[in-house]
Write a structure and sequence with these properties.
This protein is an alpha/beta fold. The protein folds into 2 domains: 286 residues, Rossmann fold; 58 residues, Alpha-Beta Plaits (2-Layer Sandwich), CATH 3.30.70. Helix content is 30%, strand content 25%. Helix 2 packs across helix 3 and helix 3 crosses helix 4. The protein starts with a strand and ends with a helix. The chain binds adenosine-5'-triphosphate. GO terms for molecular function: ATP binding. Belongs to the ABC transporter superfamily. Keywords: ATP-binding, Nucleotide-binding, Transport. This is ATP-binding cassette domain-containing protein.
């Protein structure tokens, strides 16, 4: 599989009079290979949008090396722009135009055959609503229209920043199906999100970023397997006694009210045998497999706050080297040989551009 996106040691610091100096990217690395549906995960403010904007030349990096479809980015992006579709900032459409007319105009402007309009409307599930004005579209329909506009040129690579934002569960499901269809048709998709369950369903690969650094990357199944602590939920009539017996058998037991969680287990037979031999019959013995949500929380150490978005202030936990990058810690590369120095941005208007 060839690399479709390569990012090495990307750094970006924003300077603003109001908020001072902020390091958005602190030596970030990412590799997306051809045919992947690659999830780009991180808490709010971890650097996802800055990465994508930098990759597309919308923000200038301080340093780092990037390639897109084999060409160095952003300087050589114009040579691959026809093979690339991206929705990084919500595109604005004319509310009085219909979806179909909007796409027709974009197709004409881009020299794309008008037959593509019907194809992309179909692909994003808007064919029956194509003659309604955009101002009457729901947020989800506007998102789909945006995706349709990016699909007009049949891109090999589609980059979507938080495409599920603001969508209801049905809209999220449709977006998910659409991405699966695109991948099945051979496209590579990079999708950033903080909706972890969705990423787990949609994506085959994942990169998790925290505070501007990559904390883990790889196939979703490998990342999850790396966090499998061999835990089992155990229900018995007398959990306190069961806990005692299991501890006496050298097992790590956590009492959780009406059930126990036993960790670091190779074979659950150890539980049923230990308890059965003492006349305690097991009612439930369920393996607890990690999901992306728990992996994400462990890596970024950001328990969601009931009334607030995810927090980013806590330190990244680095106590388990096997679960992190090969170096055993979030990557903070020193000088990368041959890295292109792109110059430093020290403009207060960066702040203005964002707000
Ligand atoms: N134009 C800007 N000016 C000043 N600071 C910025 C600018 N853009 C991003 N930042 C800061 O850089 C950091 C990373 O922001 P970024 O938007 O890349 O995060 P994110 O992971 O995309 O977050 P979210 O999920 O909330 O979109 C944050 O601290 C943010 O405040």
């Amino acid at each position: 599989m060839g690399a479709v996106i390569e990012i090495e040691g990307l750094r970006k610091t924003f300077n603003s009079l109001r908020r001072g100096r902020r390091t958005a990217l602190d030596g970030f690395d990412m590799l997306v290979e051809s045919g992947q549906v690659h999830g780009f995960l991180g808490p709010n403010g971890s650097g996802k949008t800055t990465t994508l904007r930098t990759l597309l030349g919308l923000v200038q990096a301080d340093s780092g090396r990037m390639t897109v479809l084999g060409e160095s980015a952003p300087d050589r992006l114009p040579t691959v722009v026809d093979r690339l579709g991206a929705i990084v900032e919500s595109p604005q459409f004319f509310g009085n135009f219909t979806g179909r007319r909007t796409l027709s105009l974009l197709a004409t402007a881009g020299g794309i055959p008008s037959t593509r309009v019907e194809e992309v409307l179909e692909q994003v599930g808007l064919r029956d609503r194509g003659d309604e004005r955009v101002k009457a579209y729901s947020l989800g329909m506007k998102q789909r229209l945006a995706v349709a506009s990016a699909l007009l040129k049949q891109p090999e690579l589609l980059i979507l920043d938080e495409p599920a934002n603001g969508l209801d569960p049905a809209g999220i499901r449709e977006m998910r199906d659409m991405m699966s269809d695109l991948a099945a048709a051979g496209a590579t998709v990079l999708v950033s999100s903080h909706i972890l369950a969705e990423i787990q369903h949609i994506c085959d690969h994942v990169t998790i970023i925290s505070r501007g650094r990559r904390v883990v990357a790889g196939p979703v199944s490998d990342v999850l397997a790396g966090f499998d602590r061999g835990e089992f939920r155990v229900r018995v009539d007398d959990p306190a006694r069961a806990a005692e017996l299991l501890r006496a058998a050298d097992l790590a037991v956590d009492e959780r009210g009406d059930h126990l969680v036993v960790a670091d287990l190779d074979d659950p037979i150890q539980i049923s045998r230990t308890l059965g031999e003492q006349g305690l019959w097991v009612r439930e013995l369920t393996p607890l497999t990690p999901d992306l949500e728990s992996v994400f929380l462990q890596l970024t150490d950001t328990e969601p706050h009931p009334d607030a978005p995810r927090q980013i202030d806590d330190p990244v936990r680095l106590d388990d080297p096997v679960r992190l990058d090969p170096a055993g810690e979030p990557q903070v590369p020193a000088a990368v040989p041959g890295r292109i120095e792109l110059g430093t941005t020290t403009a207060d208007d960066e702040e203005g551009a964002r707000e």
